Amino acid sequence: MSPLADRLDQVGAQAAAHAEHWEVLAVERDDTVVEVGSGVPDLVRSARETALCLRVHRDGRVGTATTTCLDDVHGLVGDAVRNAAHGPPAVRDPVIGRSAAPEAAGTSAADQGTRSVRLLAERLGALQRATGLTVHGTVTRTEQAVHRAVPDGRTTTSDRFFHIAALAEGTAVQLPWTGWTRTPVLPAALSTWLAAAAGWDGLPAADAPSGDHDVLLAPSAVHTLLTPLVTALNGTAVTAGRSFVAGHLGEPFLHPSIGLRDHPWAPAAPDEEGTGGLVWPGSDDDGVPCAPLTLVERGVPVRAYHSVRTAAACGTAPTGHGFRGNALRRTVLKPATPVLNGATLSAEPADVGSFDDLLAGVREGVLVESLMGGHQRAGLSPVVEGRLRLGFLIRDGRVAGILRQRPIALDLREVLGRRFRAVSDRRWAVSRIWSGRLPFVLAGGT
Hints:
Blueprint: H1 3-16, E1 21-37, E2 40-58, E3 61-67, H2 73-84, H3 114-131, E4 134-150, E5 153-169, E6 174-181, H4 188-198, E7 205-206, E8 214-217, H5 219-232, H6 235-239, E9 258-262, E10 293-297, E11 300-301, H7 308-314, E12 322-324, E13 336-338, E14 343-347, E15 351-353, H8 355-360, E16 364-372, E17 383-395, E18 398-403, E19 407-411, H9 412-418, E20 420-424, E21 428-431, E22 435-438, E23 441-443
Parallel strand pairs: 7-18, 8-16, 14-22, 15-20
Antiparallel strand pairs: 1-2, 1-4, 2-3, 4-5, 5-6, 8-23, 9-10, 9-14, 10-11, 12-13, 16-17, 17-18, 17-19, 20-23, 21-22
């Protein structure tokens, strides 16, 4: 028996003596980080952490405690029991107390440890030579195992993946990118996008066209545009009365071709970008089985996503989205909250084309790469208000200038509603407040 398995048994035995129900979540994580400066992989650092979270039901209330000290089993159980005296009411017939279906451990991709993360960092740095932009960032290789123990038994889910946080900058252009990949391969769309943007670095400053004009949004901007809706469908916003859409489920909201679906069981096979999918856990951190969930169907919001706590507050069933942190990076010190981990925006049967096709179809308009401050009112309003961080002027199907920074407001009901025209045929991962694979989106003039 491994030391961690022995600790889980000890925690369970002591908790059972003081509580009607108990659950232990243990997270083992190894991180190897390579920093890239001016296109050159530099500093390598590693970290390993194991943390335990105990949740107990005692006298009809819930108590939680966490620790990174595996030897202090008595202190962990004592803290959880004491916290239950002042904790929230326990959910009746809790899902976390039922026997969970066995979870197969995730199949890890072929990997060579530190060598693989350095290889990916070298490929990231090579973009500097290929594009002429200065590339900085970090590449993190994470190997994570999540163990969940309840009185009925124990399950384990594990996976290995890479997270990239990069910035490519020129004289005027600054392109941030965050995302994940399961293999040490950069998304092909990212390389193509940076190469195209590098050719625009020397263009003159310009103002946006006056009057009606087309808007082409890059995946980063699409993420910002969707965040109000994603936040409004979050069980936390629904229970707090901060959701502009909660009372309008089942009503038309976006263009009838638009769909938004979370895919927690994304296949661990190479996708069109060659990066591979991620193995999602069989259940969330509340013990609820994970399954694909349709949030928007044919332009109609149809369902919110919930943890056990928010579902109980709304009188509905949990959806398997209660995570401490998120499915990619568990953080036991955080409470379990509803999180989208693999949302995909689809648009069928709308027009689909390459980025070049979408660009060529714009006579006069703007290309919005990224926004600043667009998340401040998320959930309260479908209008994204912020500042243009990076954008470009489009004339006759070509990028003609770099837009000056200015305030900007985008109404997702308009951009993804009556103005919606097309999406790109390629998507890449964007991971910030929530994670998803997103395309370029083209909206016509009003």
